[in-house]
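Recap slide: Endoglucanase, sequence and predicted structure.
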Amino acid sequence: MATNKCKVTLLTLALMLVGMMVDRVASQDYGDALSKCILFFEGQRSGKLPSNQRMNWRKDSALQDGSDVAMDLVGGYFDAGDNVKFNFPMAFSTTMLAWSVIEFGQFMGPELQNALDSIRWGTDYLLKSTNYPGKVTAAVGDPNADHDCWERPEDMDTPRTSYVVNQTHPGSEVSGETAAALAASSLAFQSADKKYSADLINRAKQVFDFADKFRGSYGDSVGSGVCPFYCDYNGYLDELLWAAAWLFKVTNDQTYWNYLEKNIPHLPKRVTRLVDGVLHDGGESFAEFGWDAKYAGINVFVSGMVMNTNKSDPYVPLAEKFVCTLLPDSPSKSVAYSPGGLMFKTGGSNLQHSTALSFLLLAYAQYLKNSKKGTVNCGNVDVPVARLEEMAKGQMDYILGKNPLGMSYMVGFGQKFPHRIHHRGSSLPSMAQQPQHIQCKDGTPYFQTKNPNPNLLTGAIVGGPDEKDQFPDDRTNAPESEPTTYINAPFVGILAYFKANPKPSI
């Protein structure tokens, strides 16, 4: 008997050691993924690149941006695989990077500084974009001309038209999201750079006032400069409330809370979604979150401030309704799941939904931990904090390679990842490889070739596989193979958390 007990004890010890090793490996893997997820943003930089640029196949680009309107608009990020700077999704990406640092920066270790650098690259440009009272830049670069070419950012010879909203041609959604980005970033920099933090919040207040006082949609004001690429199909009130929530968080000024309380009842109850060029009813608004729709984000974010107070309604109830739309066994589930477990919502570039919605699940789980509420009730299902974290972790693990194809959808992570991504700079020879100018149509053969991209856009997360977990790795299939800043930005926070906490909370 003693011998058997000894064997059992040794076996238990061995299993514990294996478990510890697996956890350590997982943690290291998430750390590697975090580093690469942040590094991706260097590959999207526009403007004069700094001496510490690590994605060194990229070089300076778009150094005259803003000259057509007598503004300095050099800098910022290209949103995806093209060479246009769309401020609306850029500001949202900046907000999400900042929120990632605010919630999960303590888990980032040495990557925290890189994360702050990625935020600052966005906010420095957003400060330039709002440098003149009564004006906010909406985009830089003629998108139709740009999309007609396959050119490196360093070679661009298409018009770098600046699209600016003002008091007579307003853009409340791009201005509101810009205010949110500046406010959130102010909070992210509060410890690291107090002066910069103060500059950001002061500008955020000014931009919010402009967005609210001169109301209108930027699609109406700048037209083809942003549409149909990043048209706002769901109105601008959600961006105004999103900005007010962030301003209240940073300033604790009751004016912003009163603004939320007054306007939250007027948010649209349903959303519109563009699918294959056709507008569709996208369902109930409380379940939506992304560059175009901030509804679930508002409710989750505000819930973190009011969960244990008498001000929790309607934020906490709507945040929990949102959570229940994602739970596979919830009676109110409104998303689909692939056979391999990837979350799907209607429309292209699906991983933008997986990362953004998973971030909200994880953030809400942390708010639940800090409150008296331990669970979310979804009809006949009680959902503990650990389940929310497991759901977010499941999406993260799928993206990093735990899926039927065994493919990581983050470029450069793991042994198998996309090599033919829809990205101009990545798919064309670098300046070092071919310093001669590559003209507009001369890039077409590089777009069409089946060869792998010559430059690795490390950390880029592509649009992802289809509903059957299939992925052709084809750069001509933009919805599946194109990376975007707003896919990566929320993933930064998720990776940071699970790097330090590889097992969901009990």
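Residues 2-43 form the longest helix (42 residues).
Confidence is low (pLDDT under 50) at residues 1-27.
(End of recap.)
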